[in-house]
Amino acid sequence: MIVSWLAGLRQAVSSKLTIGIGGLLALAITSGQSLLEALEPPVLPALAAGAPLDAGRWRIVLHDARLTTQSRPDGSPAPDGAQFLALDLDIANRSSETDNSFVRVLTVDPPVEGLQPNPTFWLLRDKAMLSALQPGLPERVQVVWRLTPGAKAPERLRLIVTGQTFKPRDNLLAAPGWFNPKPVAAAILPVTAAEAKP
After folding, report:
1. The model's pTM
2. From 34's CA, which of 2, 128, 163, 196 has a CA 20 to 30 Å away?
3. Could you read off the pLDDT of 64-115 as tens digits, one per residue?
4. What residues contact residue 192 under an 8 Å CB cut-off, 6+ apart?
5. Interval 122-163: pLDDT, tens
6. Cα–Cα–Cα angle for 141, 54, 66, nearest 5°?
7. Are the C-beta atoms of residues 81 and 187 closer than 8 Å to each other?
8. Torsion angle in degrees (nearest 10) through CA of 19, 22, 28, 34
């Protein structure tokens, strides 16, 4: 009786130790991976102006970045004489649905002091504000960031492009979709000076 009780106790202690050691090992491994990722940021491929990039859900081509006094592509200047940073790009929605997540494709990194974080997207075809992109229809788009008055305009603009991957079945609902947004490329574009006022 005592022998079987001791055997049961030994087995219980052994399994708890195994579970505890396994948990500590898993914690150590994930902590180590997190530390390595924090210490060594991934080196992103460089994206040149005019070069196409497959960013999963999106196919994009960055063009020129410039300072302007126009808040929109129809040529009307801002009434308060503000300055803006404008970027032209070609973008195509490669998914099968109309989508508006293109607003998260570009990130200014490092942030530029005085540059609003959320730009406005304009459809150059009809000079209208862009709210969603149709599937399979490439568009020329202008992205416009406002500079706060007195802010120093950057000489170069570094942009991080975020892509997504398609999964035929996701882990939660077993439905197809675009997932795992992550940086896929970095571009450094020279910023040309604002056009001269007439």
Report:
1. 0.76
2. 163
3. 999 999 988 888 777 777 899 999 999 999 998 999 999 999 999 999 999 9
4. 64, 65, 66, 67
5. 999 999 999 999 999 999 999 999 999 888 989 999 999 999
6. 35
7. no
8. -100
Cβ atoms of 59 and 163 within 8 Å: the answer is: no
Q: Are 90 and 125 in contact (CB under 8 A)?
A: no
Measured between alpha carbons, how far is 123 from 126 in angstroms, rounded to an integer?
6
Q: Residues 1, 69: one domain? A: no
- Three-class DSSP category at 176: coil
Compute the distance between CA of residue 91 and CA of residue 140 in angstroms, rounded to an integer. Answer: 7
Q: Is residue 46 part of a domain?
A: no
Residue 77 DSSP code: B
- Tally of domains in the chain: 2
Q: In terms of domains, do 56 and 149 share one?
A: yes
